[in-house]
What we know:
The N terminus is likely disordered. The chain has a single domain, classed as Chitinase A, domain 3 (Roll), CATH 3.10.50.40. By secondary structure, it is α+β, with helices and mostly antiparallel strands. The protein is globular, with a radius of gyration of 20 Å.
Amino acid sequence: xxxxxxxxxxxxxxxxxxxxxxxxxxxxxxxxxxxxxxxxxxxxxxxxxxxxxxxxxxxxxxxxxxxxxxxxxxxxxxxxxxxxxxxxxxxxxxxxxxxxxxxxxxxxxxxxxxxxxxxxxxxxxxxxxxxxxxxxxxxxxxxxxxxxxxxxxxxxxxxxxxxxxxxxxxxxxx
Length: 174
């Protein structure tokens, strides 16, 4: 199958699509305004997570350089480690820090959710957090907004820039 457009034409069109919004925003004149999408929530998320840990007297949280926190609850160091490129199967409950459950495998027949780790098929917090686990382990992932759904949120259940809490159980690693 041959395309009517050359590769060069498609690259040019893509470049124009990617740069035009920036040019339009710059041309608007008021550069003092900052949209929510451009705000760095790293410090705010860190403070929210630290408060959550303190309020819940959690002392075993392991902070990752990305800002993700992993709280192991049932270790299994002899289990197969999760690693990029492996298919993992996970039981989970996802909630906001106020306890509002937005999704869970229990809502889907309690079948583990499977995906290939490290391919970006899930939120970054999952790719990073599940990679810290071994088959059979249970734990909690506290995910800053930038590693979750960011400024867009997800539907009506997850607001923009929400810190997320996932109870996870790594059922299988293939």
